[in-house]
Write a structure and sequence with these properties.
It is a single chain. This protein is mainly α. 73% of the residues lie in helices and 2% in strands. It has a two-stranded antiparallel ribbon. β1 and β2 form a beta hairpin. α1 runs antiparallel to α10 and α3 packs across α22. The N terminus and C terminus are likely disordered.
Length: 489
């Protein structure tokens, strides 16, 4: 592989061999993906915060936190994210995808500073609520932005950047949580919006949003920036304009819920449902407590760092595979892996608690099971529901429908997070993990029967298939119109 630099500061990545005259993507698209994904780092940090923070918070002399208040510190963020998801849909349509993402940076900073300086638990809850609102808006806007700016050929790879960098946020929180208390950790969280804000100022709005507002020249400039100066963009711009012309009228709630679009929405909702009911956020929010509960001989803070590293590394595996194997194959592997490991974890607790068997020599099993579980989750069911939300929702309803799907995701997150301990008390650890395993198993059949393959297809082609619309004559991929830089290949 050879990387060449032009005078216009765009980099073209050229692959040697038969495709040597077809650069895969430009540095501009990578920069856009990284900028947006810095917001996901804050989301990851916010999600993981309660795992190390609640332990030091409950032992703090500065602030008094009851068990019920601790559960609300964990559960309030996804509840606020539900409201943020509902708010994000209208925002991405009316003020734009980029501006919506940009406007979350300052509230994120304020929320974390409230937590860091809190002397009473109500300020911690207020900070969690503000951060949660931004989490909901961002988790909707990120996939919509990337879905509309990245080329189909690499949309899977670059579309996983939010999940990959979000997992860095989780890992940073786990590592820092071993050495910092809840307040110091919140100050670290307050620092993360700064590079996010700087990078977001460097990237443009999506060409599709500009076209939807009749700002054709700005759309042309944005697409030129994303595809680089040596790319012929007329065909792609024309196709976006054609699609916008068909979707010109504003969509009402009744139209969003019409049968024409129901298939796309239900598939996206189904993926969100199985993503959250797999128990992932219960595991992320309460990793330290799970290891304490298991009686593992391995230090629980060290265990969370190992889990965070596995979570982080596995997403890069998904990034390498998704545009080669496709979405569905990875979802199959993910479902089977999570079902198996959760069953093993449930069996461990059943043998220990119900059969009263000494499992001290199996102290490594909870850590190993959670590592493989997170590997399976991060391979597909973590990133792909968000990626496919930006792909399969038709352009005319994308903002409103994405708002519904995101709000539903965070509703499921809140339910799982807030009720995790109640379920533990009701059916025990073994029953809890077996319940999550059964849900993952059902999710496998949902993917087999309902989920389409979107690998390598343009958004317009996917929309034709999902809505049953007769396919129009499409442009060849914009890649085919990119002229290679002189490379001697």
């Amino acid at each position: 592989m050879k990387i060449l630099m032009r005078a216009d500061t765009h980099y073209s990545i050229v692959v040697k061999g038969n495709d040597c005259d077809k650069p895969k993507y430009t540095f501009s698209q990578v920069l856009a993906a990284v900028a947006v994904s810095m917001g996901s780092m804050i989301i990851g940090f916010s999600s993981a915060y309660t795992s190390p923070a609640l332990v030091t918070m409950e032992n703090s002399t500065r602030i008094d936190v009851s068990a019920e208040e601790a559960s609300w510190i964990g559960g309030l963020m996804p509840l606020a994210a539900l409201a943020g998801g509902m708010l994000g849909g209208p925002l991405v349509d009316y003020i734009g995808r980029r501006r919506t993402i940009l406007f979350t940076a300052i509230p994120f900073f304020i929320g974390w500073m409230l937590i860091a300086t809190a002397e009473i638990v109500h300020l911690v809850l207020a900070g969690r609520a503000i951060c949660g609102l931004c989490v909901g808006v961002g988790s909707l806007a990120f996939p919509v932005y990337l879905g509309e700016t990245i080329q189909p050929e690499v949309r899977g790879t670059l579309g996983l950047f939010p999940t990959a960098i979000g997992n860095i946020g989780i890992l940073v929180c786990y590592v820092a949580g071993k050495y910092l208390d809840w307040s110091q950790l919140a100050y670290l969280g307050a620092a993360l919006p700064v590079p996010f804000l700087i990078l977001m100022f460097m990237i443009p709005e999506t060409p599709r949003w500009y076209i939807s507002r009749g700002r054709t020249e700005e759309a042309r400039k944005a697409l030129r920036w994303l595809r680089s100066a040596n790319t012929k963009i007329d065909n792609e711009l024309h196709e976006i304009s054609l699609c916008d012309a068909e979707n010109r009228n504003e969509s009402s709630l009744r139209e969003i819920l019409s049968m024409k679009y129901m298939k796309s929405i239900l598939i996206s909702l189904g993926l969100m449902l199985f993503q959250q009911l797999s128990g992932i956020n219960a595991v992320i929010f309460y990793t330290v407590k799970i290891f304490k509960m298991s009686g593992s001989s391995i230090d629980e803070n060290l265990s969370t760092i190992v889990v965070g590293m596995v979570n982080f590394m596995s997403t890069f595996l998904a990034t390498a595979l998704i545009d080669r194997t496709g979405r569905k194959i990875l979802l199959y592997i993910s479902s089977v892996t999570m079902t198996t490991t959760l069953t093993i974890l449930g069996t461990f607790f059943y043998v220990r608690d119900n059969l009263h068997t000494d499992v001290s020599n199996l102290g490594w099993l909870p850590l190993t099971s959670l590592m493989i579980y997170l590997l399976g989750f991060s391979l597909a069911f973590g990133p792909i529901p968000w990626l496919m939300m930006g792909e399969i929702l038709p352009a005319k309803i994308r903002g409103g429908a994405a708002s519904i799907c995101t709000a539903f995701n965070w509703l499921c997150t809140f339910i799982v997070t807030k009720t995790f301990y109640n379920i533990l008390i009701a059916i025990g650890p073994a029953g809890t993990f077996w319940l999550f395993a059964c849900i993952c198993f059902v999710g496998l059949f949902f993917v087999i029967i309902c989920v389409p393959e979107t690998q390598g297809k343009s958004l317009e082609q996917i929309e034709d298939k999902m809505t049953g619309r007769k396919a129009r004559t499409r442009r060849l991929s914009s890649i085919a119109n990119i002229k290679p830089l002189p490379s001697g290949c």
